[in-house]
């Protein structure tokens, strides 16, 4: 295969960039509220098992495909088999859909960070603040465009001078902020109106200890499906990102070791995010705070920060700065995947494709913002939820396409190309691949079945009734 004109300088640059893509809003926002909803330690155990099995298979597959073919997702699948070229287009469609709304969420984060940096931080804790902001006609668009400009600048700078350089700065900073706030959360103590004093360590128990009360087969399967869907958010698999990043990895990099480090980095960040958020919410809002779901970050946490008093403003600023770092590195990986694929598809320069993808991202992000006011609608989705424009894009990309792509990829690698094709790439330079046997069994027999179930349930084609 031809050598890429640009790439990561080495293993560390790849790991930090890939971890930057993996450690995003999904880890810090989605993981804690799913954990709170699904029984704390029960969700943790299930998620950890899935990371060590399915996550390992999906991540290894994507990265190995990218490095061996030296192509981005659009053409990499065609290199594996001409009849599978359509799979490359499906993977291209996922980041194209995600890009429509990820910068919008980044704009929300930027708005909150600005509020904590320029005011006393009391406004974000007020009822209706979040709804009032996202339904405003101009403000959400302005903050979205600022966040999008940061993203486009990093991608424009290229792989080594842009993505790798900024990942080396942002990822250590992100990890330090997560660790710092997590430790602080454990020191909290607050006496509620009921006279009961709750502590951060008690909240840690709520987070870590499995809640098996009322556990049924149906509930366990729902926990399993939630944890599996979280893998897609956390590891950036089945959306072409890791294939693209893998195509930039040099042949002398120990691929098995690098993917293990990404798994560890990503899982540690998710675990620490839960330790950072759940104890704090428990201390100030009690067990009721565990039921706030997706609104946990933008509605519940500001109330927690306000309850902390003067220090709450500093903690709030640090939290949204950290969340901004996570959102930026993930959004960069999504845009880079689109730019890299279009560079290969249309044989244009990075500068030209950055301009085109930037314009596409701009127009679609504005439409998503307008989806909360001028273009607002409510649409019943096949998974039973009701959503508007952002929810529709998220549903198609994450609940429909990603499980479907994982299903087809596992069939392609497990039964058409053969697991040995991936294993040989991981062991290219004689490196050990201790989990080669496990990989072969999972990609052939287990992953296709589970992905089929996840796809059928996520699309509402199969109802779990026990």
From TrEMBL:
GO cellular component terms given for this protein: membrane
Q: How does it sit in the membrane?
A: Multi-pass membrane protein
Q: Where are the transmembrane segments?
A: 40-65, 86-110, 130-157, 169-190, 220-243, 264-285, 305-332, 353-375, 395-417, 438-462
What keywords is this UniProt entry annotated with? Membrane, Transmembrane, Transmembrane helix, Transport
Q: Which PROSITE patterns match?
A: NA_NEUROTRAN_SYMP_3
Question: Does this entry carry the keyword Transmembrane helix?
Answer: yes
One Pfam annotation reads SNF
Query: Which PANTHER family would you find in this protein's record?
Result: TRANSPORTER
Protein name stated in the entry: Sodium-dependent transporter
